[in-house]
Amino acid sequence: MFISNAYEKLSEKIAVAADLCLKPWKHSVIISIDNDDENSLLEDLVLVIQARNSEGLRSSDNDLEVEIYKSGSDLSITLSKSSLPECPILWHGTYSLWMSSETGKICEPPLDSSRYESFVRRLRCLFVDD
């Protein structure tokens, strides 16, 4: 599907949020859209967020996959590390919680959890006017 100007701007805003919260990496965003209707932006978005170091070299260990979707009248976001499927998954709705990627049960957050939680809160602000 052709990516419109609205999606390009959204991609840029997401990359800026990732750069701010997930230093020292620089980020690019690939948006996967399941719906051709630009007016239903929140139906289901899958983002692949690619990390690069300051020299522009890829750091795939720091890549993220983010899914943004409507759950009832609320917005939910899940975040996982693309290359490390055994790492916990962050779910963010009205609050954040970490889940085991193997069992789906609530688990202890990783040591660097605050940076990812900050990032998903910034993402949520791009889509929701609280």
List the defining traits of the structure above.
single chain; 130 residues; alpha+beta; 6 strands
Please characterize this protein's 3D structure.
- With about 130 residues, this protein is an alpha+beta fold.
- The chain has one domain (about 5-125).
- The protein has two helices and six strands; from the N terminus they run αββββββα.
- It has helices at about 5-20, 115-125; strands at about 25-35, 45-50, 65-70, 75-80, 90, 95-100.
- The chain has a six-stranded antiparallel sheet with strand order 1-2-3-4-5-6, covered by helices on one side.
Detail the topology: elements first, then pairings:
Elements: H1 5-21, E1 26-33, E2 44-52, E3 64-71, E4 74-81, E5 89-92, E6 96-99, H2 113-127
Antiparallel strand pairs: 1-2, 2-3, 3-4, 4-5, 5-6
Show unreliable segments: none
In sequence order, what are the helices and strands, one letter per element?
Answer: HEEEEEEH
Q: What's the number of domains?
A: 1
Tally of DSSP helical segments: 2
Share of β-strand residues: 25-35%
Question: Brief overview, please?
Answer:
25% of the residues lie in helices and 32% in strands. The chain has 130 residues and is α+β, with helices and mostly antiparallel strands. The chain has a six-stranded antiparallel beta sheet with strand order 1-2-3-4-5-6, covered by helices on one side.
